[in-house]
Each structure stands twice: as C-alpha cells, then as structure tokens.
C-alpha cells in the first residue's frame, strides 16, 4: 500500500486518542437539554443539572470547554487508587496491574482539559508517570518471552500495545524465520524426516507440488498432505503480513 | 521464502561464499574468469550465494560442489555469539548476518547454527529494545555500529514508535480535525 511508513506500523497516537474519546465518563452538567440527545452511536438521555450524567468523553470535554459541566474523575484516576495500583505494579514483576484499556489517553485528555476538576492534579500526574514507567519496563521484559508461539500481556493499554507493536511484530517474524525447524514440528513426524526435508530443500519442493494434487484423490497419502500444506500456508501468512 | 521483489533479500543473497567444485564442468570456466571451456575439478573460488544455490538446485543437472561454511558462520564467531552475543560486531562479519543466515540455512543443513543464531538474535533483541526506549539520548553510536541490517530496521521501527508517543505526550501534534473540504461542504448545505 502507498501509505507513508509511519502509518504502516498501526495506529498513530492521535488516532488512539480519537478512539478513546468514545469512552463513557460521568459529568455533572450545568445545562438542561430537555430532550434526549440523538447521536450516531445511540441515544443519550437528556442532560439534567445537579445530577450525574454519563456521556462520551468527547462530549464531556466539549462541554467543559464551554464551562457547562464538571467532569467527575474516574474511580481509577484518584490519587488513592493510583497509589494502590502503583504499589501493586511494583511488587509484581511479571503481571500488569489492572488499568482501563484507554487509561493513558483518558488521563492525558482530562489533565489537559479539566485540570480544575481533578483534586491534586499534580500528584495524579506524577503517579501516572511513575505507573507508566513501571509498566514500560515490564513491557520491555516481554522481549525475553518473545519467540514462543504467542506473547501474553494482560491488562496492557492500547497506547502501550501500540508503542511496542512495530518492534515486537517485526522481531517476531524474524525469530520465526530463524527457526525453520518449527514449521515441520507441528505435525508429529520424527526428526529424521525433518533432517531429510531441510537437507534436500530442492527435492522437497518438487515433491510438494507434485504430491499435493495427487494426495487429494489418494486416501493413503493424507498423512503427508496434511503436513505439507500447513507449512506452505505458514510461509504465505508471514509474507502476507509483511506486505501490509 | 523471501519476497521476490524485496531488495534487502536480494542484497542478502549477494553475499559471496567459497565453493569447491568436485568434477569437471563443461562451459562454466567463465565463473573463474578463465577462457577455457571446462571448469576443472578441484577449483575453489568465491561466487555469490544466489548463483551457488542455482547451481546446486538446478533442475536438469546438479553440479557437484561443496559450499564451504563462510568465516562468519565459523566456530570463532559462533563461540563469541554463545559467550556474549551483545558484544559481537555483526556488521564487520556480514552486514546481513541474520537474513543471509536464513537463506543459507534453507540450503545447508546446520542445526547447530540455527540454534546459535536464534539465541543470539533473542539476546541482542533485549539490548535493541532497551536502546529504543531510552529515547536515543544515551551513547548509541557504538552500539548501532554493531547491529546487522535486520536489527537496524528493528531499532528504527522501535525508535519511531517511541518518538511518536513522546511527541503525543508533549502535545506537539495538535488534534485530529475534519478536513477543510468537509467544513466547506457543511457550510454550503
């Protein structure tokens, strides 16, 4: 595709921020809309003053800028909650502690636009920064685990995934390429077969094309036919994703 | 299988390997630069890897020859990689070390080498990752010089993503807006 290179790696931080603005948040509106709000994503109940209304973040920020609402700080973003999470994060070396999927984006948007609604905003900011650094170093540890068939990282946020995505996916493909033996080991064939296959790679290629069509009609050849298309499909899939 | 049009793959296969021919081969003397017709048995010289592969895997007639293990896959480098992969200067050995390694291993059966390469790649990955996250302010030139092309591409990708997050944190992006054309249209209707 003719996308610039920095867009090929996935989402940009700005796009992620845009996605995060669809998250719901509680506000105390200062206006009365009287009618329900018809939005593309559905209908919102009418905003009433002196009551807690749940609206998308983008609307909350827009209202906040017009001084028409106060934003309620989410429960996970209070100083107490963050201190607790940070402690948890530091005591457990492997697991990520629970945070909302969009926590970085929401926190940044709130700190930017609704400073006066956040009690002790500076402390919150520092705590978030510490938390992020602790999690970042954990994500870095993920490199060790890389090279198995998958990599498990629970509770990681979208922004954090996006940061390590280009590096990890590329590294993952390279590792896969470096271990050709893994392609044949899925189906339980013995090692001798593996050696033979990679010893004469030219021959096995011929056999693959010739034998593949015959195996469709011959029931006896089903063992070899089940092993071969799998490995060729694997090659295709790696290539396909590299083209993206 | 590499992508046919991938320029890096083409460059990687251009690496010279030393080949020893076992029999007289008519019509191939030009490989060595000679003017005779037949290549003599026992000649030993460098040819690019892609050519060696074609000669070995030729459909009609296989040429009897041995591909010698290149020096950078030899025991010296292997032991160095086993001992401490991070300190080995791969650019000096072969600029496309890992990429060439994968195509080389498709042709030559060397289980030990594939293990060494995988372990080395993983060990060096950790260091590359750490450097991308440090924001490029530590002294990286020394370290960058030791990376092979694959790792350099990885480093670049990691640097770009962490730089863009950093920029986002500093609010230097602005915000996503509707395109100006859309705004005009909205006014018109």
TrEMBL record, chain A:
InterPro entries linked to this entry: GINS_A, GINS_bundle-like_dom_sf, GINS_Psf2, PSF2_N
Spans annotated as Disordered: 220-244
Domain GINS subunit: 76-168
Bias-annotated ranges (Polar residues): 222-244
Compartments, record wording: Nucleus
Gene3D superfamilies the record matches: 1.20.58.1020, 3.40.5.50
Pfam families noted in UniProt: PSF2_N (PF25005), Sld5 (PF05916)
Gene Ontology cellular component list: chromatin; GINS complex
Claim: Nucleus is one of the keywords in the record: yes
GO BP: double-strand break repair via break-induced replication; nuclear DNA replication
Keywords noted in UniProt: DNA replication, Nucleus
Residues in DNA replication complex GINS protein PSF2 N-terminal domain copies: 12-71
Family the UniProt entry places it in: Belongs to the GINS2/PSF2 family.
Protein's UniProt name: DNA replication complex GINS protein PSF2
From TrEMBL, chain B:
Localisation per UniProt entry: Nucleus
Major place of residence: nucleus
Domain named GINS subunit: residues: 74-168
One GO biological process term: mitotic DNA replication initiation
Keyword Nucleus in record: yes
Nucleus listed as a keyword: yes
Any Gene Ontology CC annotation: GINS complex
Database matches in InterPro entries: GINS_A (IPR021151), GINS_bundle-like_dom_sf (IPR036224), GINS_Psf3 (IPR010492), GINS_Psf3_sf (IPR038437), PSF3_N (IPR055221)
Keywords for this protein: DNA replication, Nucleus
Residue ranges of every copy of the DNA replication complex GINS protein PSF3 N-terminal domain listed in the record: 5-56
SUPFAM superfamilies: GINS helical bundle-like (SSF158573), PriA/YqbF domain (SSF160059)
Task of the protein: The GINS complex plays an essential role in the initiation of DNA replication.
Subunit structure: Component of the GINS complex.
Similarity field: Belongs to the GINS3/PSF3 family.
Protein name per Swiss-Prot or TrEMBL: DNA replication complex GINS protein PSF3
Organism: Linnemannia elongata AG-77
Lineage start: Eukaryota, Fungi, Fungi incertae sedis, Mucoromycota, Mortierellomycotina
């Amino acid at each position: 595709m003719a996308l610039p290179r920095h867009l090929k790696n996935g989402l940009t931080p700005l796009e992620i921020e845009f996605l995060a603005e669809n998250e719901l948040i509680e506000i105390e509106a200062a206006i009365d809309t009287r009618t329900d709000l018809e939005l593309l994503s559905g209908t919102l109940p009418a905003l009433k003053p002196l009551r807690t209304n749940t609206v998308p973040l983008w609307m909350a920020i827009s209202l906040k800028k017009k001084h028409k609402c106060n934003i309620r700080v989410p429960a996970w973003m209070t100083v107490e909650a963050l201190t607790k999470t940070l402690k948890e994060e530091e005591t457990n070396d492997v697991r990520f502690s629970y945070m909302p999927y969009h926590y970085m984006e929401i926190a940044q948007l709130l700190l930017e636009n609704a400073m006066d609604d956040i009690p002790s905003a500076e402390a919150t900011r520092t705590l978030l920064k510490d938390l992020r650094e602790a999690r970042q170093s954990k994500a870095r540890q993920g490199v060790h685990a890389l090279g198995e068939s998958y990599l498990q990282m629970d509770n990681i946020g979208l922004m954090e995934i996006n940061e390590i995505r280009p590096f990890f996916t590329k590294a993952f493909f390279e590792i896969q390429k470096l271990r050709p033996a893994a392609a044949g080991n899925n189906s339980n064939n013995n090692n001798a077969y593996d050696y033979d296959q990679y010893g004469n790679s030219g021959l096995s290629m011929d056999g693959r094309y010739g034998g593949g069509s015959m195996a469709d009609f011959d029931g006896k050849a089903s063992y070899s036919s089940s092993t071969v298309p799998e490995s060729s499909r694997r090659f295709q899939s790696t290539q396909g994703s590299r083209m993206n | 299988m590499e992508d046919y049009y991938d320029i890096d793959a083409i460059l990687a296969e251009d690496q010279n390997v030393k080949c020893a021919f076992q029999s007289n081969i008519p019509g191939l003397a030009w490989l060595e630069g000679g003017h005779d017709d037949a290549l003599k048995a026992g000649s030993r010289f460098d040819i690019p890897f892609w050519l060696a592969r074609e000669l070995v895997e030729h459909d009609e007639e296989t040429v009897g020859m041995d591909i010698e293990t290149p020096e950078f896959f030899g025991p010296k480098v292997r032991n160095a990689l086993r001992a401490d992969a991070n300190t080995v200067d791969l650019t000096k050995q072969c600029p496309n070390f890992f990429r060439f390694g994968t195509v080389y291993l498709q042709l030559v059966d060397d289980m030990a080498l594939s293990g060494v390469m995988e372990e080395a790649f993983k060990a060096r990955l950790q260091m590359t990752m750490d450097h991308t996250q440090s924001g490029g302010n530590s002294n990286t030139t020394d370290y960058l010089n030791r990376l092979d092309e694959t790792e350099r591409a990885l480093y670049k990708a990691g640097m770009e993503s962490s730089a863009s997050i950093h920029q986002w944190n500093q609010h230097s992006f602005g915000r996503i807006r509707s395109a100006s054309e859309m705004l005009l249209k909205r006014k018109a209707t």
